């Protein structure tokens, strides 16, 4: 427990991690207030569902879903004997609209979510990685498009759906937050939904 406390103290002293930790705490409160994508769907038909190739633009990101597939291994893993599909993968072209490099990758991982039932509680990706070389650690520079693979592990016993639905949260910039006294991006409730058929793995990894 003491080691964990010391680790958190060290992270808190780093500005980028301080912003991420604060944003995560505030995002959890906002998602709880909004009820995930449940309340957004409650009135019916208020959130259009887009498809592949349609850019989704928030204040922080431009995300263009390209394709989705299921596989028995994550992209970039060494080939193994084929088994039951265990992973759901979404490939998207992502561009940061922020002038700040700090924390944008962590914000993205909180904003793009899987909706297993097409609505309701969102599921965060197990990981995100560059599509070209499966790099886990990468930055989102201002205005620089990056192809990103978002990966979810399918629940045990769940067959891959023919079509799957994802959601994306809105995010707004706060010049100086009361919590930290620093500028940061805050998650601002459900914003968009998009659905893609599951097909073969996407070809190539070039933006």
Question: Helicity, in percent?
Answer: 10-25%
> Strand arrangement, largest sheet?
1-10-9-5-6
Query: What would the principal axes of the Cα set say about the shape?
Result: globular
Mean pLDDT: 80
Number of domain modules: 1
Radius of gyration: 17 Å
Runs with pLDDT <50, length 5+? none
| Largest sheet report | 5 strands, mixed
Strand content: 25-35%
Q: What structural class do helix, strand and pairing data support?
A: alpha+beta
In N-to-C order, the SSE pattern is HHHEEEEHEEEEEE
Describe the structure.
The chain is of the alpha+beta class. The chain has one domain. The protein is 21% helix and 33% strand. The protein has 4 helices and 10 strands. The radius of gyration is 17 Å and the shape is globular. It starts with a helix and ends in a 10-residue tail after the last strand. The mean pLDDT is 80.
Write a concise keyword list for the protein shown above.
4 helices; five-stranded mixed beta sheet; alpha+beta; five-stranded antiparallel beta sheet; single chain; 207 residues
């Amino acid at each position: 427990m003491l080691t964990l406390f010391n680790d958190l103290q060290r992270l808190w002293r780093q500005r980028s991690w301080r912003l991420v930790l604060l944003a995560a705490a505030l995002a959890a409160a906002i998602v709880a207030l909004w009820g995930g994508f449940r309340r957004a769907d409650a009135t019916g038909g208020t959130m259009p569902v887009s498809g592949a190739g349609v850019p989704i633009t928030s204040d922080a990101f431009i995300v263009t879903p390209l394709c989705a597939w299921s596989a028995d291994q994550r992209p970039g893993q060494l080939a193994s004997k084929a088994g039951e599909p265990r992973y759901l993968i979404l490939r998207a072209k992502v561009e940061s609209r922020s002038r700040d490099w700090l924390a944008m990758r962590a914000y993205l991982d909180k904003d793009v979510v899987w909706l297993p039932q097409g609505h309701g509680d969102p599921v965060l990706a197990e990981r995100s990685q560059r599509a070209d070389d499966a790099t886990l650690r990468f930055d989102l520079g201002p205005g620089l498009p990056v192809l990103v693979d978002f990966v979810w592990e399918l629940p045990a016993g769940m067959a891959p759906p023919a079509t799957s639905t994802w959601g994306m949260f809105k995010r707004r910039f706060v010049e100086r937050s009361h919590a930290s006294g620093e500028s940061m991006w805050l998650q601002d409730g459900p914003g968009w939904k998009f659905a893609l058929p599951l097909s073969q793995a996407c070809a190539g990894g070039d933006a």
